[in-house]
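task queued by scheduler; priority normal; single chain, no ligands, no partner chains; default sampling; output format set to structure tokens
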Amino acid sequence: MHVKELFSLKNKVILVSGGAGNYGKCIVEGLAEADGTVIIASRNLENAEQVAQSFRSKGFDVHALPVDQGNHASVLQLKNAVLQKFEKLDVFVNNAVSRPMKSYDADIADFAESMRVNATGSMDITREMANLIVSNGGGSIINIGSMMGMFGPDLSNYEGTTMGTPPPDYFFHNAGLLNLTKYMAQVLAGKNVRVNCISPGGLFNNQPEVFLNNYCKKVPLKRMANQDDIKGLIVLLASEAGAYINGENILMDGGLNA
């Protein structure tokens, strides 16, 4: 197969949870540019529809559906809506995340709420969408984690800022996501479903200048990730170009942890 065909997502239906967020928009754009039919799933349907409309205005095939990842009934409604409106699912990008815990000292109830959405909810939506993919003959599941699931926090990045200590739930559930990726790859063996994870480093989002200086001086590429950096990798894992990549976690941090 020609390499351009290997990377093509034409006729592929792709669901991106949290597709209206910072990384979500980058992911959706890359998948749409590769000619995929992309569905943004979000709790805020109005916002998701605005994002989808902005992509459609550029000629991309992007749609929006509602989902509350922490609500099983909502996840099932999303599953049924995808099947009814698009008749199949080829790729699921597990990208949604909730951030109820703001610091190390936050109420422990915030940690429990984070696990409800980011652990239990993540497993719920992944399993249900995996069932759709299996029923369609196979495809790809891509978990979006973080380098924070692989390494402890470098607190020196926050020196001179008021950003505070990063919350522990983010590290906890992203670490679990790495092994869940391997688990799902094994459980879905023989069903033509690949399961992989991307662990990005920091995405530039107008952070305080002190933080940017602290962070970027440690990165061999001397910058944070930009809007385009994840696009090629997400298309690789979603397309036939990544057909023999399975059960892997790919660190995308500009060499920070090299």
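post-processing summary
- The CA atoms of residues 45 and 66 lie 5 Å apart.
- Residues 108-135 form the longest helix (28 residues).
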